[in-house]
Each structure stands twice: as structure tokens, then as C-alpha cells.
Design brief:
63 residues; alpha+beta; two-stranded antiparallel sheet; 16% helix
């Protein structure tokens, strides 16, 4: 789902936000040859409508 923000963070940016399920993002990372090493999913806070996820990925063979 794409969301267009006209007012956020106390400013008026022109910002397109894509809200994708974490599993879909992980698939896209793997498709690009990256390895997921960490994932954090949290429930929405009072200003948000959807959960938020943060994924960390790396190139294979890197520590």
C-alpha cells in the first residue's frame, strides 16, 4: 500500500510511503542477494495506523 504524506513530523514534505508486510520485504531483500540478519516489529503508536517493521540485511559472506 502506498500512502502519500502531505504533512508529517511538523513539516510539509512531499513524501510517498510504501507499507509492505515484513515478509514481502524480506523476500525482496533475498531476491536482491541480501541475507536478513535482524527484524524488529512493533505495534503502532497513537499516531500510526499500522505496525512498523525494521529489517537489517547484509551481503552474504560479510560479518
Amino acid at each position: 500500500m502506498k500512502v502519500r504524506l502531505e504533512h508529517a513530523y511538523g513539516h510539509a514534505p512531499s513524501l510517498g510511503v510504501y507499507r509492505l508486510p515484513p515478509d514481502r520485504v524480506a523476500e525482496q531483500l533475498a531476491g536482491a542477494g541480501l541475507v536478513e540478519v535482524a527484524r524488529l516489529v512493533r505495534e503502532p503508536d497513537r499516531r500510526e495506523n499500522t505496525p512498523q517493521a525494521f529489517l537489517l540485511a547484509r551481503k552474504p559472506g560479510k560479518s
